[in-house]
Write a structure and sequence with these properties.
This protein is mainly beta. It has four helices and 18 strands.
Length: 397
């Protein structure tokens, strides 16, 4: 029988444990600071860390199924979610050494966000019966080794399972200004890759990425469907303006009868030390799709961000987005699955703040309005728009 409590008992117990741990930190340091500053960790270049991210969303539509439609992560109405209990251990390669160096990283996540980071045929998808754990799951979204070769300005070689480099927003809660995610992050794909990725800084302004991966969100299924993952990044001398173009392209599966491609262009500019702007444009397509009778599906979008640093503890932000599922093959009524909405454009306006009263705390309230012009994508397919108010707290340790 499915658990009916708003917060899963396992998640509740972990929150009870985690909150005192984070509370033991102070404004000058985090829980793991003592470990990370130890002679052993400093000598070996090791680092451990993590956070708890928990929040709640109010949906003005009062959906009967408690789903916030195609919105991911902050996806449940009036239910407290522990989105992420996140732990990581890493040894970053030291690019300043100009010598051989070896490193790697392993990440662990438990919470309601884990379902988006489980790759096909990954053993983490079988650790928990999510049907009985009310949307809570476990994921190991990253596990890779990294080598720095003293070639030119330093060639980094990453091998294993790692997050995608395509797109702006990411899985890890602290890497995003807003609690909710944009449509491009949720529906354009992918989240993770398995394979090899090289990075090389040409000079202080340009760097390139290039590698081969086993498709999108995959570990061992369709192991012959290798894709190209790569791109180029640029920043000015002051790092006040930057841009990048990244792409992933290749066969969808081992049959190699269908190819899938996505690219993302990003542009960032600081109008002032306290005013930051980001523009993101995505385009993706897949040819020879069976559900389209062998036709080609397209999906694409645009995102704009404007962030204002009020002081060192408070910032405000706006996000405006448009995402087009031109052939109705990507977006479902529920972020966790369900029937496809059909061809439609999706729009969203989000406003929020980040308040960091202490180094290890980030409070992120936001208001968001979504609407679709080609489908009743919200309230279980009954409405074409929705208004939500969300707030979460990230506690680092």
């Amino acid at each position: 029988m499915k658990t009916t409590s708003p917060l899963n008992p396992i998640a509740g117990a972990l929150l009870v444990i985690a909150l005192p741990l984070t509370a033991s930190a102070n404004e000058d340091g985090l829980l793991f600071d003592g470990v990370n500053r130890s002679a052993l960790f400093k000598n070996w270049g090791l680092h451990v860390g993590g956070w708890v991210d928990s929040g709640v969303t109010y949906n003005a539509n009062d959906p009967k199924d408690k789903s916030n439609g195609p919105n991911s992560y902050a996806d449940r109405d009036s239910e407290l979610q522990m989105n992420q209990l996140y732990l990581f251990a890493e040894k970053a390669v030291d690019r300043k050494k100009h010598a051989w160096d070896f490193g790697g990283r392993v990440d662990f996540m438990f919470g309601t966000d884990a379902y988006k980071t489980q790759a096909y045929n990954h053993w983490d998808s079988r650790l928990i019966d999510s049907e009985n754990e009310r949307f809570y799951d476990i994921a190991f979204p990253q596990a890779y080794a990294e080598i720095l070769a003293p070639v030119g300005n330093g060639l980094s070689i990453k091998a294993g399972h790692f997050y995608t480099i395509v797109g702006k927003e990411g899985v890890m809660a602290p890497s995003n200004f807003f609690y909710s995610r944009n449509y491009s992050f949720t529906w354009a794909g992918p989240f993770t890759h398995t394979g090899v990725l090289l990075n090389y800084p040409i000079n202080q302004n340009f760097s390139i990425d290039s590698g081969a991966v086993m498709g999108w969100d995959n570990t061992s299924r369709d192991s012959g469907a290798w894709n190209y993952l790569g791109g180029v990044s640029w920043k000015n001398d002051l790092s006040t303006t930057s841009s990048s173009l990244h792409i992933v392209t290749g066969p969808y599966d081992d049959s190699k009868s269908s190819n899938r491609t996505r690219y993302t262009f990003l542009f960032n500019h600081d109008f002032a030390p306290f005013l930051h702007y980001t523009f993101q444009q995505d385009y993706a397509f897949q040819d020879n799709m069976a559900q389209l009778g062998g036709g080609t599906a397209d999906w694409y979008g645009v995102n704009n961000y404007l962030l204002f640093d009020i002081d060192d503890k408070l910032a405000a932000g706006l996000r405006a987005e448009w995402f087009r599922d031109a052939d109705g093959v990507r977006v479902t009524q529920n972020a966790r699955g369900g029937p496809l909405n059909g061809a439609s454009s999706y729009y969203a306006l989000t406003g929020g703040v980040n308040w960091k009263p202490m180094q290890w705390v980030n409070v992120r309230p936001e208001v968001r309005y979504d609407w679709a012009d080609g489908a009743k994508a919200f309230d279980s397919g009954n409405r074409g728009d929705q208004f939500t108010f969300s707030a979460d707290v990230i506690l680092h340790f």
